[in-house]
């Protein structure tokens, strides 16, 4: 589902996965709140108010919270002319509105995009990425990130990834608010809730985690494909991928640990594992998978 007027190739597989993920995430949220209401009947007004408030905050502000957490700082064309110039060229090529442009002061070479829609979108590159990439490689990375905005999968990921946080927050508030008053009948309710709520919260977190990981791996391949076809230079994107992944090994582990919680948003993961079990929980496909796809696209574009 590419944005209106965008020249990015549509991806029906991505659209189907986004719709399914949002439906299941929404269902999980409703079930979780329902369990809280059933377990803590006396506190239902507080639970409903908090659930509604957190949902509004999640929808309207989660992208800003994510950008702030990753250290994004908006910059003007005068401050970062090369970055703005690259974004301008990609936006002109894709025929889409220009997002806000930001940088993050980090030696970890990476980039990400956030935003509920094209009007509120932001694309951010780290200073480490800007220092290491050639202009064509940088454009490939930015085309990848802007495809997330055009396909709207960045909004789905931003909203969906906060369900685990919400589940934990709701649990703490419900337990704290529900057990604040003494009473004989409350003693038995407390014992039940102490068992049920943490268990349900854990299940909600695990399911939402797996759903977002499955969507994240597919959307990265989709963004690579869309960027390569838009720019017509899959080799530049492949070069950027190889360079960024290779440079990660030279970054201090301390800096990588800071970036790791936001792996699902980054162009490339801070840590990647070749173990098959670990790959099941990875936010990104392997480098080999991404390069293999770009190689096939390059061969297709080279055909008469």
TrEMBL record:
For this UniProt entry, which residues form the secretion signal?
none
Which Pfam families does this one have?
Peptidase_M48
- Predominant place of localization: membrane
The record's subcellular locations are: Cell membrane
Drop me one GO molecular function for this one. Answer: metallopeptidase activity
Q: Which InterPro entries match?
A: HtpX_protease, Pept_M48_protease_HtpX, Peptidase_M48
Q: Where is the Peptidase M48 domain?
A: 77-295
Tree of life domain: Bacteria
| Active-site residues, Swiss-Prot/TrEMBL | 145
Which residues bind Zn(2+) per the record? 144, 148, 220
Required cofactor names? Zn(2+)
Which Gene3D superfamilies does the record cross-reference, listed alphabetically? Metalloproteases ('zincins'), catalytic domain
Membrane-spanning intervals of the chain:
21-38, 44-61, 154-179, 191-211
Q: Membrane topology for this entry?
A: Multi-pass membrane protein
- Kindly report, in one word, the top-level EC class recorded for this enzyme: hydrolase
Annotated family: Belongs to the peptidase M48B family.
Q: What is this protein identified as?
A: Protease HtpX homolog
Organism for this UniProt entry: Streptomyces ficellus
The record's gene field reads: htpX
